[in-house]
Amino acid sequence: MEPTHLFELVIVMFLAIIALHYAAHKLGLPPSVALLTGGALLAFAPGLPAISVDPGLVLVIFLPPLLMDGAWSIALARLRRHVIGIASLAVGAVLFTCAVVAVVAHLLFPSLPWAACAALGAIVAPPDAVSARAVLERVRLPRRLQILLEGESLLNDASGLVLFRFAVAAAATGAFSTGEVIGNFFVLALGGAIVGIVVGTAWFKLVRRLGDEYLIIAASVLLGWIAYLLGEQLHVSGVIATVTAGLIMSWHQHTVLSAAMRMRGTSFWTVMIFLMEAAVFILIGLSLRDVVERGGGFTTVIATMGLPMLAILVTLVIARFAWVFASDFVLRFCAVLGFTRARPLGAGGATVLSWAGVRGVVTLALALSLPEGFAGRDFILVTSFAVILGTVLIQGTTLGRVIAWARLVEPDSERARLTMSQAEAAMAQAQFGTVQGLAYDAEGKLIHPQLLERYQRRATSIVDYAERTEHYIPVLHAHFDVILEAVATGRRELIRLHRAGEIDDETLRELERDLDLEELSAISAKA
Questions:
Q1: DSSP class of 46
Q2: Is 446 helix (H, G, I), strand (E, B) or coil?
Q3: CB atoms inside a 10 Å sphere around CB 105
Q4: DSSP code of 414?
Q5: Residue 127, Cβ neighbours under 10 Å: how many?
Q6: Which residues of 361-395 are buried (b: 16+ CB within 10 A; e: fewer)?
């Protein structure tokens, strides 16, 4: 394909993303479902060339920034609190699922070598970070389940990648050692963590010296790729390196980035991640044509592989349910024995956690990276795609209903000690204390009476609001509605003045930025 045609195809893909997102919004579907389905339909569009996805390139382009985005936004305090549960899912559940799938695959195809069965298990075992984000954006979960799923999606790719590489190596050499796999996993994870710490620390020191906000935003955007590529070059886990660097950046961004940097950087980053997440699902759909052709066409695939593919999909779901419910039983047993830190999820929480295992881009990339001539390659590739389709279309679309059925309740232990209103009150009182100390000169004369009155009034009103939140909510909503109307009126007048030639472009942009900040502040306060 010529470079200009490739660029045209990329533009068409982005236009399709906009159209499919809009259609998903109108139809009430998860965007991931619309994008995956739309990409699959585009793959068979007349005149469209076959799309061949380079798995290594897909992982390098998409995985680091998406992992970085997850690490940037994750709640670090809850991540530390639930690290054992996250490790259980990211490592234990992946190993268990890989083993169960390998056994079932070998029962279905006794002639298939164990290494090939293990490779299939490693490919389909880890739920995908991109797919998990796409699903979780549309549902509301208790904080504990949210952090378990987010933490799992950040770390389980490392487990799957290690298992996959050892399974492929075992298929080539005929030797496989469980102890060697476990030992190498911890070496790769530790090495990745060290690389992530070095890269994250270097970013922290660099942004404190750069000074230019655009350079800082650019350095922050590149951080994920740098950590991932450096980790892979050093033959350690690039996934762990990226996540570790992202966690360091997340921790320090509140102190080293200015408000302008955060606003501009977040705006750019949000649009980039949106396009990348959507492009992943489009690419998965576009790859369907190549997958089906490798399997001999739809008729052959359904006739020869339909039941085995369904069996693997069902096995995946059952294996995850078994691991989650067994882990919850252990927690319940520990709680009975008096371990106060052991808090089981309950049947509803365990069901939601089990049903949320959606597969995506990592599964497809690993399947496509299998070497030519690998035993059972066509079956593994077709099955991997069927698993992605099945989990996204079935679990992704029904997770909201499962959550509604479970009627989950946030436990008191997961709630923060202060509400947002109480935190605002504490912040306002601290600000008033500072202004009160600076409102007088050295001789005790009041020199900033308006500032002192403003901050005192604000601190008093916010404390009162925190104590009677429910009483004030309707009044505040009406209050901010008026502010939003005033902002809209001011914006119309500003544009009229500019169109009439009475103000220049610089004045327009400066005043428009002030109105934007006022509007965002009102919308945030109203929400």
A1: T
A2: strand
A3: 27
A4: G
A5: 30
A6: bbbbbbbbbbeeebbbbbbbbbbbbbbbbbbbbeb
Residue holding tokens 């001999």? 296
Backbone angles phi, psi at 446, to 5 degrees: -75, 120
Q: How far apart are CA 261 and CA 108, in angstroms?
A: 56
Residues 268-291 as b/e (b if ≥16 CB within 10 A, e otherwise) read ebeeebeebbbbbbbbbbbbbbbb
Alpha-carbon span 436 to 416, nearest angstrom: 30
pLDDT in tens, the chain (527 residues): 567 877 888 888 889 889 998 998 888 777 878 888 888 888 777 777 666 767 778 788 888 988 888 888 787 778 888 888 888 998 899 999 999 999 999 999 998 888 899 999 999 998 876 666 666 666 677 888 888 888 888 888 888 888 888 888 887 776 666 667 677 788 888 999 999 999 999 999 998 888 788 899 999 999 999 999 999 999 998 989 999 999 999 888 877 887 778 888 888 888 998 888 888 888 878 777 777 777 677 777 787 788 998 999 999 999 999 999 999 898 888 877 777 666 788 888 899 999 988 887 788 888 888 887 788 888 888 888 889 888 888 888 888 888 888 887 766 666 666 666 677 677 788 888 888 888 888 888 888 888 888 888 888 877 777 777 777 677 777 878 888 899 889 888 888 888 888 887 778 888 888 888 888 888 877 66
Q: How far apart are CA 507 and CA 505, in angstroms?
A: 5
Candidates 519, 514, 454; CA nearest to 462 is: 454
483 burial level (CB within 10 Å; 0-12, 13-18, 19+): middle
The span from the CA of 14 to the CA of 277, in Å, is: 11
Contact 366, 55 (CB under 8 A): yes
What the block records as the tokens of 523 is 């919308």
Our separate counts of H helices and E strands in the chain read 23, 0
pTM (predicted TM-score): 0.78
Residue with tokens 């597969």, as numbered in its chain: 359
Distance (Å, rounded) from C-alpha 35 to C-alpha 361?
13
CA 519, 430, 475 angle in degrees (round to 5)? Answer: 40
Identify residue 405 by its one-letter amino acid code: W
